[in-house]
Amino acid sequence: KMSITLEFKGLRETCEYQPNETVSGYILVNCPSTISHNGIELKYHGEVKLELSARTVGLFEAFYSKIKPTVLMDGKLQVCGPGTLRKGEHKLPFKFTAKALEKNEPLPDTYHGVYIGVLYHMIATIKRGLLLVSPAIKQEFYILSPTKPEAESKQIPFSVSPANIKNISRQQRAKIAHFLFEGRIDSAVCDLNKPFTGEIIIRESQNDIKSIELQLVRVEICPYSEGEAREATEVQNIQIGSGNVIPNLPIPIYMLFPRIFTCSTLRTNSYRVEFEINIIVVFSDDHMVTENFPIRLYRVSTPTTRL
């Protein structure tokens, strides 16, 4: 026996919207036979989900410290009043405004993290009697919230050699084969719609080089009863140099920020989401040197038609 199917249609190709924009489309309902119903409802909801890392706070604390989600957006509308739907396809239009639950609170970007998630979705339901299944469908949509840069954009030069490596003893430093890497990043204050850029130059290295990598790291911070849990995890890693690269050759640093898995830097009383860049040089013996750059991300207001 065929069942009733629902599908969201007519939304933007990317499902991306800015705060206070209208989200519109239609629900395509396919009925294998005529049915009666108690109304067709659309709910839309946004929330921040927080989870503690067992590695940071311990398994017991992580399991029992359930943090209640913070609601950002919540609403519902009746798409169709009670009645009947005949056999065949039905297009039921809807529209709502993507606005925050609290009047003066900004809606943060959609963000899919490991321990923090900012999620927006809508659910369409055909309400039927108590003993009948009420068909429903859920659809995520993405909020891209324009923000302002917190500081000026400026180039940051760097130079890495055994002399400025941290976290090693004097004896260990004396055993390290000599190397010198120089370069720059074009800015640590970055627009999410533009690439992260710079360059690195291998001036000299006594050991052969195996790989040069660019790593984007998310840092998620959640407060809990004993303090705050801080967890850094990799978002993506891009190889920008392979093998024993030519000395004194400028190697471009170029990386696009992935949609959904990055967002404007978030700092609230309940949680924080920050980002860092690591430039990693891996030697042929698998030892590696890392130069770390905390970065601040923001989003310039642009037409939300990006693919």
What can you see in these coordinates?
- Pfam families: Vps26.
- The chain is elongated, with a radius of gyration of 25 Å.
- Strands 15, 17, 18, 20, 21 and 22 form a six-stranded mixed beta sheet that branches. Strands 5, 6, 9, 10 and 11 form a five-stranded antiparallel beta sheet that branches. A four-stranded antiparallel beta sheet has the order 13-14-16-19, with no helix packed on it.
- It has 307 residues and is mostly beta strands.
- A hairpin with a 4-residue loop joins strand 21 (272-283) and strand 22 (288-298).
- It folds into two domains: 5-143, Immunoglobulin-like (Sandwich), CATH 2.60.40.640; 156-298, Immunoglobulin-like (Sandwich), CATH 2.60.40.640.
- The chain starts with a strand and ends in a 9-residue tail after the last strand.
- It has three helices and 22 strands.
Any idea what the shape is? elongated
Low-confidence stretches: none
Total helical elements: 3
Strand content: over 45%
CATH topology of the largest domain: Immunoglobulin-like
Terminal Cα span: 38 Å
State the share of residues found in helices, binned by percent. Answer: under 10%
Family: Belongs to the VPS26 family.
Pfam family, one: Vps26
Protein name: Down syndrome critical region protein 3
Task: Provide a compact summary of the structure.
With 307 residues, this protein is mostly beta strands.
Topology:
Elements: E1 5-9, E2 16-17, E3 22-31, E4 35-37, E5 40-50, H1 54-57, H2 59-64, E6 70-80, E7 83-85, E8 88-97, E9 111-112, E10 116-126, E11 136-140, E12 142-143, E13 156-160, H3 170-175, E14 179-185, E15 189-191, E16 196-205, E17 209-224, E18 227-242, E19 251-255, E20 266-267, E21 272-283, E22 288-298
